[in-house]
Every structure is written in structure tokens, then in C-alpha cells.
Amino acid sequence: MTDTIKVLGISGSLRKGSFNSALLREARALAPDGMTVDVADISAIPLYNDDVREKGYPAPVQTLREQIGAADAVLIVTPEYNYSIPGVLKNAIDWASRPPAQPFDGKIVGIMGASPGRLGTARAQYHLRQCFVFLNSTVLNKPEVMVGGAANVFKEGRLADDTTRGFVEDLLKALAVAVEKQRKLAD
Ligand SMILES: Cc1cc2nc3c(=O)[nH]c(=O)nc-3n(C[C@H](O)[C@H](O)[C@H](O)COP(=O)(O)O)c2cc1C
């Protein structure tokens, strides 16, 4: 029997009615057999301060680092703020990315995002990819899931568009394939 594939989802929005958090919830619901998608809570992570880090990781950061370390893959769902990624998401990644044993090293990462605009977070997603170059993560190139016109595809907090749901399912399947490949290499 193969081990369950554990995916950790991180939404870059703290807003209750967030389209991106709704997209992550949908991914959780659409996870194929043999995969679980847990959702990280980054709302209590303080602003990065290296003086604080030197004294020890704050509890919410430590939890996030452990969750990333324990996951087979990370699924980041990013809003786009001023053509880039939101500060809260960058801040969480910055905290998680410090030594020892930075947990993004070699980690499989999938990216998606939603915005009311037409480009569906395309610009933010390319900035996010750049961060993971430094962190030496394995970011899936495809499928790209950029959900534009979010106000029309989400209804009452649910993704109400079958085409977009199909894109999310494709991304989850691609994460599963990447994890299986990584496991085979590690055997
Ligand atoms: C500070 C700020 C900057 C924004 N910049 C962009 C942008 O560059 N591109 C875009 O498509 N939407 C932009 N938006 C609109 C967001 O896409 C929109 O607020 C979206 O709903 C945020 O994601 P959420 O629903 O998950 O919270 C911006 C919103 C804020 C608050």
C-alpha cells in the first residue's frame, strides 16, 4: 500500500471572504484518493525580525516550519497585490525559510491564485516562483492555475465553475505525480 500524499496548503490572504482561501478549500475538497490537503494558519505570524529569530522561532512560525517539513508538497494559493505577492505571504515564507534545515529545500511546490482582474494573479505567481529558486524548491511549471474574474467564478464561498475546478484537479494530480517520482528516486 502506498503512503498517503500529504499536501500543505497556504493561502496568502487573511480575509474571511478571500477568493484564494476559497480556492484552497476547493482543492481540499477535490483532493484525489490517497491525498490529503491540510491548511496552514499564517494569521498569527509576526513581522520578520532576525533579532527575534536568533532567540528562537515564535510558536506560529515553528508550527509552520514543522508542517512544511512534514508535508510531501506545498500548495500555495496567492492573491496578487500591486503586481506581486502579498506581504503576509512573503513574510511567512521568509520566516519559514531560515536555517537550520530550511524546509522548502527540495520541496515540491504547486502554485495557484485568484483575483477579480483578468490576469488571475499571473504577475504575482511569477514573483513567487522566483522566491523558490533561492529556496531550491521543485516548483511545478504546469499546470498554471490563474483564476481571473474571481467575482464571477466563486458563489457563496464555493468555486462554481467546472472548468476551473478541472484546472485545480489537474494541479493536484500533477503534485501527486511529482511526489511519486520523488519517492521513487529516494528509494
Ligand atoms: C493592496 C492591494 C493591491 C492589489 N493589487 C492587485 C493587483 O496588482 N492585481 C490584481 O489582480 N488585483 C489586485 N488587488 C485586488 C485583489 O486581487 C483582490 O482584493 C482579491 O480579492 C484579493 O484576494 P483575496 O480575495 O484572496 O483576499 C489588490 C488588492 C489589494 C488590497
Task: Give an overview in words.
Helices cover about 45% and strands about 20% of the residues. Strands 1, 2, 3, 4, 5 and 6 form a six-stranded parallel sheet that branches. A two-stranded antiparallel sheet has the order 7-8. The protein is built from seven helices and eight strands; from the N terminus they run βαβααβαβαββαββα. Helix 1 (about 20-30) packs across helix 7 (about 160-185). The protein has helices at about 20-30, 50-55, 60-70, 85-95, 120-135, 150-155, 160-185, and strands at about 5-10, 35-40, 75, 110-115, 140, 145, 155, 160. The two termini are about 15 Å apart. The protein has about 190 residues and is α/β, with parallel strands linked by helices. It binds flavin mononucleotide. Flavin mononucleotide binds near residues 15, 19, 20 and 83.
Care to give the gist of this entry?
By secondary structure, this protein is α/β, with parallel strands linked by helices. It has helices at residues 19-30, 50-55, 59-70, 87-96, 122-134, 150-153, 162-186, and strands at 5-11, 35-39, 73-77, 108-114, 138-139, 145-147, 154-155, 158-159. The protein is globular.
Task: Give the total of beta strands.
Answer: 8
Per DSSP, the total helix count is 7
Sheet-strand content, in percent, reads 15-25%
- What form results from the Cα inertia axes? globular
What's the pLDDT, averaged over the residues?
97
Q: Give the CA-CA distance, first to last residue.
A: 15 Å
Tell me roughly what share of residues is in helical segments: 40-55%
Low-confidence stretches: none
Element order: H for helix, E for strand: EHEHHEHEHEEHEEH
Radius of gyration: 16 Å
Structural class, please? alpha/beta
